[in-house]
Amino acid sequence: MLGLYTKAVEIKGALSHDGKVVVLRGWIHRKRSSGGKLFAVIRDRTATIQCVVDKAKVSEKEWDAIEKAYLESSVLLRGTVKKDERAPGGAEVTVTELRIVHSGEQFPIQEYQSPEFLMDVRHLWLRSQKMIKAMQARSYIFRYARKFLDKKGFYEITPPLLTKAGGETGANLFEVDYFGQRVYLTESSQLYAEAMIGSLEKVYSFAPSYRAEKSRTTKHLAEYWHLEPEMAYFDNKRSMALQERLVSYMANSLAENNEDILKFFEVKKEDLLRIKPPFERITYERALEILNEKGVINPETKQKKERFEWGADFGVEEERVLTEDKEKPIFVYNWPKEIKAFYMPVNRDGKTVACADMLAPKGHGEIIGGSERIWKLDELLQRMKEVGLKTENYNWYIDLRKYGSVPHAGFGLGIERVIKWMLNLDHIRDAIPFPRLINRMEP
Ligand code: 4AD
Ligand code: MG
What we know:
The protein is α+β, with helices and mostly antiparallel strands and 443 residues long. It folds into two domains: 11-102, CATH 2.40.50.140; 120-431, BirA Bifunctional Protein, domain 2 (2-Layer Sandwich). The chain has 13 helices and 16 strands. The protein has helices at 60-68, 115-120, 122-125, 129-151, 190-200, 236-257, 259-264, 269-273, 284-294, 316-323, 377-387, 395-399, 415-422, and strands at residues 21-34, 37-43, 48-54, 74-83, 91-102, 155-157, 162-163, 175-178, 181-185, 202-210, 223-232, 280-283, 330-336, 352-360, 365-373, 408-414. It has an eight-stranded mixed sheet with strand order 6-10-11-16-15-14-13-12, with helices on both faces. The two termini are 37 Å apart. The model has no long low-confidence stretch (mean pLDDT 95). Bound molecules: 4-amino-1,4-dioxobutan-2-aminium adenosine-5'-monophosphate (4AD) and magnesium ion. Residues 167-168, 188, 190, 211, 213, 220-221, 224, 226, 228, 366-370, 410-414, 416-417 line the site of 4-amino-1,4-dioxobutan-2-aminium adenosine-5'-monophosphate (4AD).
């Protein structure tokens, strides 16, 4: 009998073993039988391949086992690889020995199922071709992001996820009972990254952030993975230059190394290879003009929205109008201070702050938010007072401006937003294995 730990080859490479006997390990993806033969499509993490079992050539026990096995039963097979132009992967396997590792129960996912049901059985839906490819892309994109920053001399740091105060608006925090004390799940690790540039100079954290936003859009998660680099002696301009290099490195690496994944999602390799610096930079003021020239439709009322005035924040529709005809991401920089966070320095004009958002093309919208940070003590205290922040929760953060403070900047990239854009997914939920959404916390 085939041993459970027998060495197996990956299905993707099976073609190169033409005429040879191989052992395959996988799950039954599809199955049909006719005239004493059973055709089983076997999947592993690399590909699928058709395997033919001839009743006359295997034992009765083996035949019974595979006949009774369900879709998604786990299986070990030994057989001869045969090149076959007509077969999906270009090869077929004639089975000489098989072992059903676990037959189990009837698989609950049938061919046409509602998105809601597929979310209920997410733990099993992760075995679908779509989710396999998406999760592989996710892993590669994580890898490329880290590789770029490692090459640029960054240290990866690990921030706490439980905090006493928010770094952003603070309006969307999840509360946690911490031994009787009210604390929050972090919405950004930036403030801790800022503390660590005092020793490591260029750092990044890659960790979850939590947002209790009541948004039911295709790009909001309540828990997402946030890549947050922070750099000493960087201004907004240098930070933007780094951001565009990081994003093009990720896009180009995916295009160069993962053509099979892109093909599955019908994404053109050339579109991702085209993502190269420089990205277009427009001021917030110019973005307002564009929105007013083009007009934005309110998706609920189907009416054109009123004129955008200074201070308006942008939502899904505004971002779509700004990026729908773009091939590369764009930066919108120098936003009104009223709609950005307290730590951003006010520009000389007295009304904007030194910051930038990166918006992905084709309507995918914001993928990065970044800025310079106020590094002078009096300026920070003044700004916190202006926006009405209680300083007692930020004592340690304020402290950083008392001892050898340096100019610095940083940014936060939402990795699921990037995955959604690069794979052109309809919904951000498919960029993460177990999405936490406003109406879903299971599985
Ligand atoms: O623009 P945000 O709120 O900026 C910050 O949190 C800064 N402290 C980051 C920094 O400078 N270190 O969030 C940054 C990015 C957004 O551009 C977006 O890509 C992503 O985080 N993001 C979300 N992704 C998925 N679901 C959500 N609900 C998100 N909210 C923000
Ligand atoms: Mg933002």
